[in-house]
Write a structure and sequence with these properties.
alpha/beta, 8-stranded parallel barrel, single chain
Length: about 240
């Protein structure tokens, strides 16, 4: 199981939100590229990047810090937030991004997800962010009636690289991930699943690893910044 350190970008800085609330942002580093290098030097194999402003704006806003991270760090990175058309997908992948994460368009324009997955095999993931099992879009500001598992199943034959499943109520709250819901989703589909939201200790990582479903990875942000998870120790544990 891969551990993805998260760098959430707001106004050019690395921040963490509480349950997706832009008004509850804690700035952890004014230099996101330097933060990314800290994670790389600790041994991470991937980086998880989110353009928070872009998720609300519907287009890239924090392009400069993302590009700085891509230039500085030699590990693959995936990015979500504001990627809602083919031109933006092509642009990011041409700049060295390993994988784009499509969230809002997975609900509003699933045909685009399918087109992108065909055009860029292995480089398109679907982000499913849910409250109480229902998908939220546009930076989690818009609630839908779409069931998270139904949405994931609808992409079974699309060739997407992964489903990134976030329990919004757990995100940034340091209360542990929703292991049960994540495992249930992973068991319901054949697409690799990456868990996100609430991963706040090595114990949480072990619970996800041993949940009975084969999870491809887990994302953690605040716990790494706060020191609740020692990244190097966590990576060593997951490799053992």
């Amino acid at each position: 199981m891969i551990l993805y350190p998260a760098i959430d970008l707001k106004d050019g800085k690395a921040v963490r939100l509480l349950r997706g609330d832009m008004d509850c942002a804690t700035v952890f580093n004014d230099d996101p590229a330097a933060q990314a290098m800290e994670f790389v030097e600790a041994g991470c194999e991937w980086l998880h990047l989110v353009d928070l402003n872009g998720a609300f704006a519907g287009e890239p806003v924090n392009a400069a810090p993302v590009e700085a991270i891509l230039k500085k760090c030699k590990v693959p990175a995936q990015l979500g937030g504001g990627i809602r058309d083919m031109a933006t997908i092509e642009s990011w992948l041409s700049k060295g991004l390993a994988r784009v994460i499509l969230g809002t368009v997975a609900v509003e324009n699933p045909a685009l997800v399918r087109e992108a997955a065909r055009a860029f095999p292995g480089q398109v993931a679907v982000g499913i962010d849910a409250r109480g099992g229902r998908v939220a879009t546009k930076g989690w500001a818009t609630e839908t009636d779409v069931d998270a598992t139904d949405l994931a199943k609808s992409f079974e034959d699309a060739g997407v690289a992964a489903i990134i499943y976030t329990d919004i109520n757990r995100d940034g709250a340091m209360q542990g991930p929703n292991v049960e819901a994540t495992a249930a989703l992973a068991k319901a589909i054949s697409i690799p699943v990456i868990a996100s939201g609430g991963v706040s200790s090595i114990k949480d990582l072990i619970a996800l690893r041993d949940c009975g479903a084969s999870l491809d990875g887990a994302i953690s942000g605040r716990a790494l910044y706060d020191g609740a998870i020692d990244l190097k120790a966590a990576l060593d544990m997951l490799k053992s």
